[in-house]
Amino acid sequence: MRKLIYTALIATLTLSFNAVHAQEQKLEKRFEAGIHLLGVGVNYEYPIVDQLTVLGKVQYNVGFFGNSDYVDYIASLSLGVESRYYYNFNKRVRKGKNTKNNSANFLSLGFDYMPDALTSTDSKDNIKVEKSSHLSPMWNIRRNIGQSNFSYEAGIGIDFYRIHYDYRPTEKETGLALRLSIGYTF
């Protein structure tokens, strides 16, 4: 009987310690610079409530186009805000997995705006970047690379976007949203 009481007491204390420890680990504020699929950028992530953050970002995106005779590029500024719901963060904490720099799976809803400012191209075809706005729900994964401040993100979703022309009606389009990035958190 005494063994049973001691075992129950040790189990209760261990579980209590783990529960308190799990409650102490929360999502982190992060300032990050990174390279993504077709560009570079910086972002700042701020926790709002348990498992939910908001992220602001400034990116410079690059696109390529051409044919068998030539390849040109076009680059443009992008400004965005994104909400992130880290649905398995607490589970990763309970299992003792690495959650540094918010390493967990998350669902996101992002809004990006691409003004026609700070654009560049080497095209001689008088190509212009049109203003566009993007709304993208996505499923994502974020993991730290070892114990360093480097991390990677990958995600997939749907991109609902509008192209805002100066002299013709706005076009509404739908496409695939992909995220592949490596970043360094300061």
Defining key terms:
186 residues, alpha+beta, Porin, 8-stranded antiparallel β-barrel, 2 helices, 56% strand, elongated
Mean residue pLDDT? 87
Shape: elongated
Counting structural domains, the number is 1
**CATH topology-level fold name:** Porin
Second rung of CATH, namely the architecture: Beta Barrel
Along the chain, the helix and strand elements come as: HEEEEHEEEEE
What does this structure look like?
Residues 15-22 have low confidence and may be disordered. Strand 1 and strand 2 form a beta hairpin. The chain has helices at residues 2-24, 89-94, and strands at 30-36, 39-49, 52-66, 71-85, 104-114, 120-121, 131-144, 150-164, 171-185. It has an eight-stranded antiparallel β-barrel with strand order 1-2-3-4-5-7-8-9. It has a single domain, classed as Porin. It has 186 residues and is α+β, with helices and mostly antiparallel strands. The protein contains two helices and nine strands; from the N terminus they run H-E-E-E-E-H-E-E-E-E-E.
